[in-house]
């Protein structure tokens, strides 16, 4: 399939707790494969439904870094997708809607939504519910 984009996972060093996804053109088949005919909205919906915890962000986003660190602190390593500006519109809301966190297919929102769940004691139960975190 010519022109197909695939997201690939980079393997972090043993001391790093983050997983990054880089989008590149390839013909390989993958669960994160992106068909060029797929709209940004459809692509985002598919990625959200296939992964228990997903962060969509701009590259080098400091708020995304904070989100990843908070999730890593509770033992979850999210799938992080860096989007182009045109793709960010597919997240809904205004053009500055990134980063956006989805847990179990539901939109949590940005950093404020994540911190609100955490401070309210709802983050860990929600992560356990969607299978992103083992029940203790």
Indicate the overall shape.
Answer: globular
Q: What's the rounded overall pLDDT mean?
A: 76
CATH architecture of the domain at 40-130: 3-Layer(aba) Sandwich
Unreliable segments (pLDDT under 50, ≥5 consecutive)?
A: 1-31
Main sheet overview: 4 strands, mixed
Content of β-strand: 15-25%
User: Which assembly state applies to the chains in this document?
Assistant: single chain
- Portion of residues within helices: 25-40%
Kindly report the CATH topology of the domain at 40-130: Glutaredoxin
Rg, nearest Å: 15 Å
Highest-level CATH class of the domain at 40-130: Alpha Beta
* CA(first)-CA(last) distance: 44 Å
Question: For the record, what is the CATH homologous superfamily label of the domain at 40-130?
Answer: Glutaredoxin
- Count every helix, treating DSSP H or I runs of 4 or more residues as helices: 5
Q: What pattern of helices and strands is seen along the backbone?
A: EEEHEHEHEEHH
Structural class: alpha+beta
